[in-house]
C-alpha cells in the first residue's frame, strides 16, 4: 500500500465522547460521520469549524477523506473528539506536522469531565439554601 492509497487510524476522546477516525489520502474531500454525511450529522456551524481546525493548521485541507464513528457525549464533545482523532491520525501520516498541531493544543486530550453530584446537595457544587431558623 503506497502513501497515496493508505488509511490512517486514530482515536480521539473528549468528555464521554469517543471517536474512531479513519483518514484516507485522496482528493474527494468526503466527510462521513456514523455513515451519515458530515453536514447532516453536525448541523452546527461551530462543529464544522472545530472538525476542520487540524486540516487548516497543517495546510492539508481538501487532501483527505474522513470517515469517523462517534459515540457518547453531546454534539460539541463529539466534534472535539473527532478533531482530536484527526490530529492524531495526521501525525501517523506525517510526523513533521507535530509542532503546528502541538502549538494549537490539538494533540492534548481535554481531560475535563463532569463532576459528580454529591448526596444531600442540589448538584456537584450547588447547595440547598441554609436556614438558621
What does this structure look like?
The protein has 133 residues and is α+β, with helices and mostly antiparallel strands. 32% of the residues lie in helices and 23% in strands. It has one domain (7-103): Ribosomal Protein S5, domain 2 (2-Layer Sandwich), CATH 3.30.230.10. It has helices spanning 38-41, 45-58, 75-93, 98-103; strands at 7-14, 17-25, 31-33, 36-37, 64-71. The chain has a five-stranded mixed β-sheet. Strand 1 and strand 2 form a beta hairpin. Helix 2 runs parallel beside helix 3 (75-93). The longest helix is centred in the middle third of the chain and has 19 residues, at 75-93. The protein is elongated, with a radius of gyration of 19 Å.
TL;DR of this structure?
This protein has four helices and five strands, in the order ββββααβαα. By secondary structure, the protein is α+β, with helices and mostly antiparallel strands. The longest helix is centred in the middle third of the chain and has 19 residues.
What is the molecular shape? elongated
Helix content: 25-40%
CATH-assigned fold name:
Ribosomal Protein S5, domain 2
- The number of distinct helices, counting runs of at least 4 residues, comes to 4
Radius of gyration over C-alpha positions, nearest whole angstrom: 19 Å
CATH class: Alpha Beta
Question: What is the domain tally?
Answer: 1
Record the strand order, biggest sheet: 1-2-5-3-4
- Residue stretches low in confidence (pLDDT < 50, at least 5 long) are none
H/E element order: EEEEHHEHH
Integer average pLDDT: 92
Number of strands: 5
What's the CATH architecture name? 2-Layer Sandwich
Describe the main β-sheet briefly. 5 strands, mixed
Structural class: alpha+beta
Taking the alpha carbons of the first and last residues, their distance comes to 77 Å
Beta-sheet strand percentage?
15-25%
